[in-house]
Amino acid sequence: MRLLIANGYVIDPSQGVNTGKSVFIEDGRVVGLLSYSDSVPEGCEVIDATGLIVAPGFIDMHAHLREPGHEYKETIASGAAAAVAGGFATVCAMPNTDPINDNAAVTRFIIEQAERARLANVFPVGAITKTSAGVELAEMGEMKDAGIVAVSDDGCSVPSPGMMRRAMEYARGFDLPVIDHCEDRSLARGGVMHEGHWSLVLGLRGMPAAAEEVDALRDCALAELTGARLHLAHVSTRGAIEAVRRAKEKGLAVTCEVAPHHWTLTDEAVADYDTNTKMSPPLRSPDHIEAILEGLRDGTIDAIATDHAPHHADEKALEYDQAPFGITGLETAVGLAFDLVNQGVIDIERMVEALATNPVRILSLENRGSLRADAYADVTILDPSFQWTFDVSLSKSKSRNTPFVGRTMTGAAVATIVGGRVVFLHPGFERLSSLEPKAFAKGGSR
Ligand SMILES: [Zn+2]
Fold it and tell me: What is the dihedral sign for C-alpha 280, 285, 287, 289?
């Protein structure tokens, strides 16, 4: 089982490669990078990647796949299909399912469902505390043995600093990063959008930026105290990014991610009361977005993650203050990341770093996020000049809650390869789709 991704432009920050090469894959692993002039190895299926960028398979560190318990919003199979359609070879499943992933049985169930779907790699994230209630630590060791790659009570913060300290010490013992949803409940409670000009104008209860910043500062201090690996999820405020910048200057093991909606939209988007602009943390004001762009530019922000949070249309059809938080994001993230490149905020190498190299480093995933010899053959093929319009009716997700319906973007993932199997080809990309039947036949049934 051999595959050659021929004549593309390889960008792999893990080994400082940024040059024209072909990628040779055999039995699900990368064999190596070949020169264009090398002869095609015998018995190879060939994908013609002329004019395209070939990158290590993208990894979304932060998605809600809703199974078990909320299969009407998303299943692991539908979420994995949306992931590969968006260019993600790997996705991390947040634990706020029903039941919550706070024990090894749920962890194993998620992994089994992902194996059944045979699309994206799915790595579960376990809860920090039992039922994410913030009271008693979850069995991190057993969950790690079962396959979790991090712990998080995402959806809420760990309310008491004492509990967070114990959680960090415990997680450190298992060498697990703690993914932190920063939202001080006593400050944010009842808020449905960013507190500022627009919350006043619209008459909606606001969540101050300080609600995120108080927890970010607290937990950076606790990372210093405990030596734990701390990763701030979906940073959205100037103060939180500044906290991470200071922590990095001190040499602490603190990292962070940003979600595409947080640099793409401001809180002004809430003005038409579209509940697809409601998420937590909320869309912020322009000064915070400026800080996000700075953080992306200077590397304070390590990763881009979707915070894909599917909800049923009936739930999002409620009044603004009643509707649940969250939007889908797996199929728009790469297009919105290309906006950053097209606007000159970051270059494409930095984009690949934020979507592949750094998530792998933060999560210590072995042999991934790289096109080095012997790495798992997860590959994302990008067309930086591909113009497309997001048609939500074609989404692979079970849910449709996105503010990006009909948005036109330049740059897309046109193919996703997982373990050497082509699991997604962009429907508008005919040059590759002619190869589809053969590529699928080699990888077995979908
Ligand atoms: Zn969160």
Answer: positive
- How far away, in angstroms, is 178 Cα from ligand 1 center? 13
Tell how far the Cα of 326 is from the centroid of ligand 1, in angstroms: 9
Residue 352 scores a pLDDT above 90: yes
Contacts of 308 (CB under 8 A, 6+ apart): 60, 62, 63, 64, 79, 82, 91, 328, 329, 330, 397
Catalytic residue among 307, 321, 347, 383: 307
What pLDDT, in 10s, does the model give residues 318-349?
A: 999 999 999 999 999 999 999 999 999 999 99
pLDDT exceeds cutoff 60 at 110: yes
307 is catalytic: yes
Q: How far is the CA of 307 from the centre of ligand 1 (A)?
A: 7
Instruction: Kindly give the distance from the C-alpha atom of residue 32 to the centroid of ligand 1, in angstroms, as a whole number.
Output: 38
